[in-house]
Amino acid sequence: MYGIAGYGAYVPRYRIQVETIAEQWGADAAAYRTGLLLSEKTVPGPDEDTITISVAAGRDAIARAGIDPREIGACYIGSESHPYAVKPSGTVVIDALGIGPDCHVADFEFACKAGTEAMYVAYSHVKAGEMKYALGVGADTSQGAPGDALEYTASAGGAAYVMGGDNVVAEILHTYSYTSDTPDFWRREGEHYPRHAGRFTGDPAYFHHVLSSAQGILERSGLKPADFRHAVFHMPNGKFPLRAGKLCGFKPEQLEQGWVVNLMGNTYSGSSPTGLASCLDVAVPGDLILVTSFGSGAGSDSFVLRATDRLPTVQKLAPSVRDQLVDRRINLTYGKYVAYRGKIRMNES
Amino acid sequence: MISPRYHREIPQRYRLEAGRCEDCGEIHFPPRFVCRKCGGKRFAIEVLPRRGKVLTHTTIWIPPAPFEIQKPYVVAIVELENGVRLTCMVAEAPPDEVRIGTPVELIFRRLQAQPVWEVLQYGYKARVLAG
Q1: Does CATH place domain B49-131 in 3.90.1150.10?
Q2: ipTM for the predicted complex
Q3: Nearest CB to A92; choose among B65, B69, B122
Q4: Which chain B residues are Cβ-neighbours of A96 within 8 angstroms?
Q5: Of the candidates A37, A68, A75, A72, which has an alpha carbon nearest to the alpha carbon of residue A240?
Q6: pTM of this prediction?
């Protein structure tokens, strides 16, 4: 049996409300709330980035796996906001977590689906018998241009997964990926903020790839939507994953637990991995879970997982996603938000 | 900080690795070459516990330039569960959230990002425990 041996998720403490951003730009907050189906998003603190989020989530994943971190043979960090242009995020993460140096490390990028890529490659290594455990992380401190629709959703957070053949809490039964060259969202070298193709990001990009991937894994596995307790679809906003789920044949109650976007925003590479972590927080042995990510450019990775008897014994070893979303939030003003996100030009110190 | 020095200090800054004197058992953090208690020179690595409490604290209103954006912030002396004390920033906490005796845990954060051509510096900060 191969799959997830331990998982952890991290949600920053800072928030900004949709109303706060709309007020800044003279926009209609109510229209954004109903259009995007979200009320606030997470904001990384001035001392947080993809590396610190990966370490926080990774520490909880290792604790839930109950293993010596030196047994982890690979560490992959999926993000589109790696702090360095040249220098890996993963080297900092392994040294902070006590992994390695006998370890293969790489940083992945693929817009919002770099996290599930990291999970997929980590899982493939342990399934191939190359190593006992491997860590796959999806984390981001995503950027949206000031005033752009993305600014209401681009948020921060992430989740980490220790894959292994021992101590499995959720067995991975099937995987499937669907990819094509679809230019819906991009950022060229040297550009500060990403560009997107407006409505083109919907049907030809998100829905085509998400539905093809989800339906592809259902066909290959012989499973039907009613077999699943939970289903998670990448959450660029509140509406897209609910519509994708409905089009695939899932009911609202199957989508509810993994739908964290209304309080969290779009954590990009951390989005569907965090939704999966939220499902693992409550799943009971035997529950089937479907996860489908989406990365612009474009592609989707799907996983079918089944919770094992070990899952309930590790759920309380670290904070749940839902608790982190609700506990001790600090709301920011727009001024504080742009300062923390580095959008104010300061004198160099 | 120049990168060779930063690299040397990674075990203590990232993983809280202290030095335990193999002659008298005294724990030193940061690690030392000579034991301040018995003069011993043989040390074993001792990873410090992450939980502790605030022994004392102060609020920084006029910080050095790289920390300007974070003001006001709290700097505390934290006593860990094994009695070892260290000084660090308290992340996220509004000053009125930190008191003498407040339970904290040590977390991994970016300590400095300026100047932009230097390596990013990471290490430990304290965070107030919920409840």
Answers
A1: no
A2: 0.96
A3: B122
A4: 14-15, 108, 122
A5: A37
A6: 0.97
